[in-house]
Design goal:
Blueprint (H helix, E strand, L loop, with lengths): L2 E11 L2 E10 L9 E5 L4 E2 L7 E5 L2 E5 L11 E8 L13 E5 L10 E2 L1 E2 L30 E11 L5 E3 L5 H15 L11 E5 L8 E5 L4 E5 L2 H14 L12 E10 L5 E7 L7 H13 L4 E5 L1 E2 L2 E2 L8 H4 L3 E2 L16 E2 L4 H13 L3 E8 L4 H6 L1 H4 L24 H17 L4 E5 L12 H10 L5 H17 L3 E5 L13 E4 L3 H9 L4 E3 L2 H4 L22 H5 L17 E8 L7 H8 L2 H10 L7 H17 L9
Parallel strand pairs: 1-10, 12-13, 13-15, 17-18, 17-28, 18-23, 23-24, 24-25, 25-26, 26-27, 27-28
Antiparallel strand pairs: 1-2, 2-7, 3-6, 3-8, 4-7, 5-6, 8-9, 11-16, 14-15, 14-16, 19-20, 21-22
The chain binds acetamide.
Length: 643
């Protein structure tokens, strides 16, 4: 390659690091009128540069030399600058992607590739953290069922095994198990009245509870609800060995067992960020297969953010024509990875319906998130006439480095936009909930807008933050009229404007969730420190991920217990609907990286969500996890290895 970029930490203090960047011209030609385009996850103090000039939008930076001279053959450009954040300890903290531009083209950018050398961290590589697991047992169901009794003996599953259902409540599960068995056996499995896998309605079983009985000649899956049948199916699938005992007959021997089981928490979710990087439908379906297998029942679909709008909205085609794409020649600048090309994608309504149906067959409800009023840059750039207030001179910078990503509560267009988008999303998604984000609105926003000031005066608000509550209250009412309950991140409570009907997802800390529950909000506990699966899972510098909320090794994820500091009879516990994990995808741009971050921690969270604390044991879990690897290997999941 003709160009090389070196990036090193030269000094680190608690809240300030000095970095050096060197661009080498390894070609035999001068590089005239150059600019270096690179992505980097932290905010650079542009006034601290020793050489050159820097412009930063989110993670995207454009560095120019500030001089007319070309970069000579075999010459280099060197600069230093300051970043005012915590010390760097991961290679992923370095430059994510880069390209060079040369010439004075002001319209179309022609990217030239540049090689990025490994991030030069000042500290020695830390030890890789691995986890020693107990030996696997014969039955390794995760999450641990409430009661499981091995009966001795085996049921032989073959291509001749058929399924029988006695209730429409089991139709989704029968489609799911048929697909799974067809994948296993390479043959279609019949559903008819003389099947030996029986789905049977049992009125006395509670919502989501199930019983599973595997006998020598029959398998009984019993429940009173669709979700109960899904969970019974999940347990049965986990009893299947990953290899047939008779290759020629394709016979899979299932251990005879009796299981009675029900979940500890009603809400067992996972959030996937599809905005920062786009995950294709097939990747999501494969993830849904695993979520269902481990008895998650909520897929929280983060569909919009600063860096991309991912869902088709008929009223505003611009949202996906413009807002779903970023790149050097797009309206939205490149971010994170793949920055020299046009990058993006979105889900058509038809694709969303397909995912909703696919999830429903597996007992999973899809809850869409439309993140407002912050994290709205893709929408604002797509619909500037509707969503921009030219008189707003407020100065702010979001934590991700944007100064133009917050909807204005004083613009009529904002309310038209929210109403139209929410209406379409409500119609598209059958879930009785809709998540409206509400996170990370930075201070300074709306402070220097005459229209916002007038709105504050009209309503007697003293703090611009109250305007966030004002806008969210509109969303809450609008959703309520559509028969939906609003959900939001914990900042939705700021300004005290939304009602206690809104469900809060607490993410900043355990204490924040506890406070919301004590204040009377229903909460989903999602403290980053215990549930954010984009956090690195080991100590070494080359571990993938981020560490702003610390690192999250497998056992730490397993040991999480919501509201553990409160006595068990504290009424706040009644407000905890469940727990959720999240995969934010700034650095997750492939199936393999997604899986590396998720597995095996997803299985640990599954057990925290499903199994009552008194039935959980790390040693027992680690043995069962060991027994799950054959399955993960078989389906080709790139999980992080344990020893
Ligand atoms: C969040 O992590 N901003 C909810």
């Amino acid at each position: 390659m003709s160009f090389r970029l070196d990036f090193v930490v030269i000094e680190q203090q608690q809240n300030q690091s000095r970095l050096a960047l060197t661009l080498h011209n390894l070609s035999d030609k001068p590089l005239a009128q150059w600019s270096l385009h690179f992505t980097f996850g932290r905010w650079i103090d542009s006034s601290s540069l020793t050489h050159g000039e820097l412009e930063q939008t989110g993670s995207y930076n454009i560095l120019t030399s500030g001089r007319k001279e070309a970069l000579k053959p075999n010459g280099h450009f060197y600069t230093e600058f300051t970043v005012g954040t915590k010390p760097f300890s991961l290679l992923d903290d370095g430059i994510i992607d880069a390209f060079i531009c040369s010439g004075n083209s002001t319209s179309l950018i022609n990217p030239l590739p540049v090689e990025i050398t490994a991030f030069g961290l000042q500290h020695p590589q830390l030890k890789r953290h691995t986890t020693a697991l107990e030996a696997a047992a014969e039955i390794n169901i995760i999450p641990a069922p409430q009661h499981l009794k091995p009966l001795g003996g085996l049921f032989a599953l073959t291509p001749h095994t058929a399924i029988e259902i006695d209730t429409p409540l089991a139709e989704g599960s029968s489609r799911w198990i048929s697909t799974e068995l067809e994948n296993l056996l390479n043959e279609k499995v019949a559903v008819h009245a003389a099947g030996s896998i029986h789905y049977q309605y049992r009125e006395h079983l509670a919502d989501s509870a199930y019983q599973l009985l595997v006998e020598q000649d029959d398998i009984w899956l019993m429940a009173s609800t669709e979700s109960g049948f899904s969970h019974a199916t999940a347990s049965l699938l986990q009893l299947l060995p990953s290899q047939p005992s008779h290759q020629a007959d394709m016979a899979y021997h299932i251990p005879m067992v009796e299981i009675c089981d029900e979940p500890h928490f009603a809400h067992r979710g996972m959030m996937l960020d599809c905005a920062r990087h786009f995950h294709p439908v097939e990747r999501i379906k494969f993830l849904l297969d695993q979520l269902a297998r481990f008895k998650f029942n909520i897929f929280h679909w983060h569909l919009t953010d600063d860096e991309g709008w991912r869902i088709e909205i008929d009223a505003y085609p611009e949202l996906t024509q413009t807002g779903a794409w970023r790149g050097p020649n797009e309206l939205i600048q490149p971010q994170f990875t793949t920055i020299s090309q046009r990058y993006g994608g979105y889900y058509s309504k038809q694709e969303a319906r397909d995912i909703i149906r696919y999830a429903a067959d597996r007992g999973i409800m899809v809850i869409p998130e439309i993140d407002i009023p912050g994290h709205s840059r893709a929408a604002i750039k797509s619909l500037p006439a509707l969503l921009t207030d030219p008189d707003d001179k407020s100065i702010y910078r979001s934590i991700q480095g944007y100064n133009d990503n917050i909807l204005s509560p004083a613009l009529e267009g904002t309310y038209t936009f929210i109403a139209n988008v929410l209406d379409e999303i409500c119609d598209l998604f059958p879930a009785p909930y809709l998540h409206i984000g509400a996170d990370e609105v930075p201070s300074g926003v709306w402070a220097d807008s005459p229209a916002c000031r007038a709105l504050m005066e009209k309503h007697g608000y003293e703090d611009p933050k109250e305007l966030q509550g004002h806008l969210l209250r509109f969303a809450e009412k609008h959703l309520s009229n559509k028969g939906k309950r609003m959900m939001g991140w914990e900042e939705a409570t700021q300004g005290d404007k939304v009602s206690k009907d809104t469900i809060i997802f607490s993410w900043l800390s355990e204490e924040a969730g506890q406070k919301c529950a004590q204040a009377g909000y229903d909460v989903v506990m999602q403290p980053a420190q215990a549930t954010y699966l984009d956090l690195a899972q080991g100590e070494s510098a080359d571990e993938a991920g981020v560490d702003w909320a610390g690192r999250l090794p497998l056992e730490q994820a397993y040991q999480y217990q919501p509201l553990a500091k409160l006595p068990t009879d504290d009424p706040a516990h009644q407000h905890v609907r469940g727990i959720q994990c999240a995969l934010w995808c700034e650095l997750v741009n492939s199936k393999s990286r997604l899986e590396y971050m998720l597995y095996p921690r997803l299985l640990a969270i599954a057990e925290v969500a499903w199994t009552a604390p008194e039935n959980r044991s790390w040693a027992d879990f680690s043995a069962r996890l060991n027994g799950q690897f054959a399955y993960l290997d078989k389906v080709g999941i790139n999980y992080r290895r344990c020893e």
